[in-house]
Amino acid sequence: MVIIIAMTHSAWPLFDLRIRCRTVTLRPVKESDLSLLAAIQPDDYEHNPHAERLPGTDLRQHRQRLVHQDYWRALGTWSPSSWTLSLAVEYSGALVGVQSLEAENFMVLRTVDSGSWLIHAARGRGVGVAMRKAVLGLAFDHLDALAAVSAARRDNGASLGVSHSLGYTNNGVSLNNSGTGLVELQHMRLPVQQWRAAGHGSEIAVDGLTPCLAWFGR
Ligand SMILES: CC(C)(COP(=O)(O)OP(=O)(O)OC[C@H]1O[C@@H](n2cnc3c(N)ncnc32)[C@H](O)[C@@H]1OP(=O)(O)O)[C@@H](O)C(=O)NCCC(=O)NCCS
User: Fold this and answer.
1) Which domains are assigned to the chain?
2) Which ligand 1 atom sits nearest the alpha carbon of residue 123?
3) pLDDT at residue number 8
4) pTM beyond 0.70, yes or no
5) Per-residue b/e over 48-84, b at no fewer than 16 CB within 10 Å?
């Protein structure tokens, strides 16, 4: 007799979280994804421009190292008031990108920020909107967030397009040191009232959240 035991991650239940929106499924990035993610991450995704590069490494090696280090940092420093949830984006049976959701002082400010990238072949098909919508559904409809913010360079039409498409409105411009000069960042903000009025929540299914609620201070 073969006994099949469904393995869950009781000590780190975030690994069992799943969010679905339309044809897109989000699930937490795991260590076994890192080599692939480092290989497929597109060059136009901006890492921390101030991260120190190891001597003798080129930009590609530097970026690939940061994919790994950002993952471990996020898990190693998680607390209910300061967290970054990195989710692998699955579309048409393949891993095509990453959607993150993050917050500082979340229990007080109840505000989330987000970041994302997709391989070029998966862009322009609504996947970017679906994956952002998925994490907003988690934040607004399950974690009691009051607002979502986002920022992108003013020439990043696709990122700003995703935000506009979901009802964010402009919230000012700031100057940022990109490492190679100053760039203008467009800030965007979406209050929960706007999210609810748009009725986006009905498209999103969240599974496995209950054991994770304490991770978000809920
Ligand atoms: C940002 C990103 C994830 C978006 O994914 P995507 O598949 O291109 O996005 P979608 O096709 O789902 O939606 C893009 C939206 O912006 C609009 N858009 C795209 N390019 C645009 C442009 N140049 N100007 C204005 N709107 C634009 C699209 O029409 C669409 O809006 P709609 O839903 O109202 O039609 C993807 O482009 C990417 O990986 N970019 C590189 C990394 C990056 O910049 N990440 C964000 C860092 S802040």
Assistant:
1) 15-45+55-216 (3.40.630.30)
2) 7
3) 87
4) yes
5) eeeeeeeeeeeeeeebbbbbeebbeebbeeeeeeebb
